[in-house]
Amino acid sequence: MQTELPDLEDRLIHGFLPLQHLFPERIFDAPLNEPAIVGVSLGMSIAGMRPIFEMQFSGFVQSALHQIQEFGRSPQRHHRMLRLPGVCRLPFGHGDRIEHHNECEIAEFSRIHGIVVACPSTPQDFYDMLFAATASDRFVAFFEHLDLYRMISLREKIVRRAPRQAIEKFGIRVARKGEDITIASYGRMLHESLAASSLLARDGISCEVLDLRIIAPLDEATLLDSVRKTGRFLVVQEECSHGFGGHLVALIANEALEYIRAPQIPLLGTPCSFAPPPRFWEFHVPRQRLIVERVERLIREQ
């Protein structure tokens, strides 16, 4: 393609063409070999560089998890004398796509010690957090929900600024204040939760919505303070089982059980061996209606 169709190839570089022409030694296409991409990036980090590499779709990273783990292990193995910066961009999430582009590996990454797991849900957070991730001396798994790329309602002017804090200090953002129930989510499900909260407000139900923009290390203080205030908790996630929400439920049961006034039942995606065909995908993940129904049920229960 480079020889016979150079113009077509240029159009396939995901918008990086101008930068690639300006900095050909810093921006380049990699072979479709995820273990090699991460392994080479690990070597570049050891050599003192700050690699930023993209998996195109998060599901492709599965074959490179061992190399990802080395980003977290090696600094500890060398008594923190070795710094291994790096950013892995991971577009994820269910949607109107073919089934093998509909994965979410957030739970797997949250269990890898020594790395930061980030998941911004607004344009400004995306800018600030990606900048901070690049400046960090720690490895950052940077999850980006595919649907948010094209969600017109999220358009906003970006304030271009240098990082004001370390990436792990971004913590949990209180996206909406409330008194009756705490709803925690991330990615596309955060916006479904906010929309459901607006509908519930018409019936006098006040929801506090938490944006879990930093999955690991988890900002436990903000989460527990909110739950102790509202007494009810609902986590909304796309994964149908074994997701990050189960960890949140366990944490609250250990640290704030005496404040809980209703059962903690995560709202999950519909159990399925793999993501359904495009025309059925919207029934696979929690939507506004399901969130409203679950919140109303928890408000009734004591």
What key attributes describe this structure?
302 residues, alpha/beta, Rossmann fold, 2 domains, 5-stranded mixed sheet, 4-stranded mixed sheet, 10 helices, 9 strands
How are the SSEs placed, and which strands pair?
Layout: H1 6-10, H2 17-22, H3 34-46, E1 52-54, H4 65-77, E2 86-92, H5 106-110, E3 116-118, H6 123-135, E4 139-145, E5 173-176, E6 181-185, H7 188-201, E7 207-211, E8 214-216, H8 220-230, E9 233-235, H9 244-255, H10 288-300
Parallel strand pairs: 1-2, 2-4, 3-4, 6-7, 6-9
Antiparallel strand pairs: 3-8, 5-7
Helix pairs in contact: 3-4, 7-10
GO molecular function, one term: oxidoreductase activity
Protein name: Alpha-ketoacid dehydrogenase subunit beta
Cofactor: thiamine diphosphate
In short:
This is Alpha-ketoacid dehydrogenase subunit beta. GO terms for molecular function: oxidoreductase activity. This protein has 302 residues and is an alpha/beta fold.
Q: Would you mind describing this structure in some detail?
A:
With 302 residues, the protein is an alpha/beta fold. It folds into two domains: 139 residues, Rossmann fold; 128 residues, Rossmann fold (3-Layer(aba) Sandwich), CATH 3.40.50. Helices cover 35% and strands 13% of the residues. It contains ten helices and nine strands. The protein has a five-stranded mixed β-sheet with strand order 1-2-4-3-8, with helices on both faces. Strands 5-7-6-9 form a four-stranded mixed β-sheet, with helices on both faces. The longest helix is centred in the middle third of the chain and has 14 residues. Keywords: Oxidoreductase, Thiamine pyrophosphate. Its cofactor is thiamine diphosphate. It comes from Candidatus Sungiibacteriota bacterium.
